[in-house]
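From the shared-data thread, chain only:
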Amino acid sequence: MNDQDDAQLKALLKKHFDPVATEPIPARMYLRRPAWIGYARAAMLVSVGIAVGLAIPYVRPAAPPIAAVQPAATFPMRAARAHLVYAPEVRHPVEVDASQQEHLVKWLSKRLGVDLKVPLLAGEGYELLGGRLLPGPEGPVAQFMYQDSAGKRLTLYVSRPNRADTLSAFRYAQEGPVSVFYWIDRECGYALSGELDRATLTRVATAVYRQLEP
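Structure, as tokens:
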């Protein structure tokens, strides 16, 4: 190829490609994201998600504290629940029946480590059925059961004071369907429980209190 042919070829190429070379770059080319940007963004979102997940335990509001049961209320609650368990029993409401009252009192007194008294409630319409030994928070508990002519039952729950129990005068509490009159002295806690109206239970509880706390 001579110089003249080379010059003609360059002129032909210039004529065909110069318009393309000088054409402005389309705006869409400026807006197109490089492929690596998508991967980078995905990695960043994963990192942020992990960081948030790790931080949640530290920023989550603390759960509200569970309200503590008042110490003085735990004693009648235990008595009422024991009543609900044993008062409905037909064949075995007590461990030792009233025909062995002397043995019953000696046995339970020995287990509790205190001289127990069994109130007589015949004047209030209730006869002693007997009693049983129960577990308590810090040792044995005695439960005496009484019944009237209609089959209504009362239970007297006797326990050595628990560390959580405080001295209390004659008080009334309600646990579900069971009404409870109770008091706690330095030697024992006493709780009379029954599914009775408050007036009737008050009358019987007063008789019990007078016999145990002369």
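The first strand starts at residue 96 and ends at 97.
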